[in-house]
């Protein structure tokens, strides 16, 4: 039944995102930062976001994150019936990508961990795939960390296509979103890895469960695994509400927006030169003037 509702394009998006990110994490950790640094991982995830959006933006709208999909459902930008298929596809895509990274970097992972797959200690390798909290972090602070990070993500991306404000060019939205993700990951990942994406964390965590790390990937840190699953689902809608209250509802209605006179003159002159386009159906009129 699950495979009947999986969206291949959504699966491929998370596959690309996790393939870039996990590969960078595996390279940096297994080389003990001699072949990259923490910034390399942040940048790789951002490149994964950009490439995944360009790949499938015209098919499904580039849904990479269940928290974003849920927020769009609440905002009535996405139908509720797509929520479960999208989320399942996102988790499965992240799982498959993690498996491929494990195969590609198997020798390096085993050498680094001295043949043991562990979650704790100086030679742990579980954090290549999923996120884990820092030792000093309390449960409440880690939850707040994920809520704030995901909220900021939604707060930023909702403005990109708002025509009443300063919309971004459609072709540049993927790199802009990637830059937003890079900024969040560079500034909010010290506490618990800046997951801000339930699928990005759950899919790889399920893989490590089945690949040999065992149930400790779920039980460690007092069953902390639920934080990057639940907190982003709260942070995303919360950030969306903040955007509505402080930005969208403060923008002028379309009727009050100043009209671009140069554009109006241009379209009218074109219609005079080509009178045939002003005859016929209402659709022709609409395409001529708008």
UniProtKB/TrEMBL annotation:
A GO-annotated cellular component: basolateral plasma membrane
Alphabetical UniProt keywords: Membrane, Signal, Transmembrane, Transmembrane helix, Transport
Regions crossing the membrane: 83-105, 172-196, 223-246
Catalytic activity: urea(in) = urea(out); glycerol(in) = glycerol(out); H2O(in) = H2O(out)
Molecular function GO terms recorded: glycerol channel activity; urea transmembrane transporter activity; water channel activity
Membrane topology: Multi-pass membrane protein
Keyword DNA-binding belongs to the record: no
Subcellular location: Membrane
Entries under InterPro entries matching the protein: Aquaporin-like, MIP, MIP/Aquaporin, MIP_CS
Signal sequence range: 1-25
Keyword Hydrolase: no
CDD domains named in the record: MIP
Major localization class: membrane
Stored NCBIfam families: MIP
Family stated for the protein in its record: Belongs to the MIP/aquaporin (TC 1.A.8) family.
Protein name: Aquaporin 10a
Organism in which the protein naturally occurs: Xiphophorus couchianus
Organism placement in taxonomy: Eukaryota, Metazoa, Chordata, Craniata, Vertebrata
């Amino acid at each position: 039944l699950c495979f009947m509702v999986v969206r291949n394009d959504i699966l491929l998006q998370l596959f690309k995102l996790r393939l870039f990110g996990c590969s960078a994490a595996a390279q940096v950790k297994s080389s003990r930062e001699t072949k990259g640094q923490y910034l390399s991982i942040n940048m790789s995830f951002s490149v994964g976001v950009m490439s995944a959006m360009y790949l499938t933006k015209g098919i499904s709208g580039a849904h990479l994150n269940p928290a974003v999909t849920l927020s769009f459902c609440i905002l009535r930008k996405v139908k509720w019936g797509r929520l479960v298929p999208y989320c399942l596809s996102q988790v499965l895509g992240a799982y498959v990508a993690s498996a491929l990274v494990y195969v590609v970097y198997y020798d390096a992972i085993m050498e680094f961990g001295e043949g043991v797959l562990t979650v704790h200690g100086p030679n742990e390798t579980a954090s290549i795939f999923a996120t884990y909290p820092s030792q000093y972090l309390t449960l409440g602070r880690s939850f707040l960390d994920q809520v704030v990070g995901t909220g900021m993500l939604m707060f930023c991306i909702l403005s990109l296509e708002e025509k009443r404000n300063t919309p971004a060019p459609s072709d540049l939205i993927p790199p802009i979103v990637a830059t937003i993700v890079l900024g969040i990951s560079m500034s909010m990942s010290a506490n618990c890895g800046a997951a801000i994406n339930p699928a990005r964390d759950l899919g790889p965590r399920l893989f490590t469960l089945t690949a040999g790390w065992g149930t400790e990937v779920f039980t460690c840190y007092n069953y902390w695994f639920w934080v990057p699953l639940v907190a982003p689902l709260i942070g995303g809608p919360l950030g969306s509400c903040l955007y509505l209250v402080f930005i969208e509802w403060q923008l002028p209605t379309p009727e009050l927006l100043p009209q671009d006179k140069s554009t109006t003159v241009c379209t009218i002159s074109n219609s005079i030169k080509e009178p045939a386009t002003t005859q016929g159906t209402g659709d022709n009129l609409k395409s001529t003037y708008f």
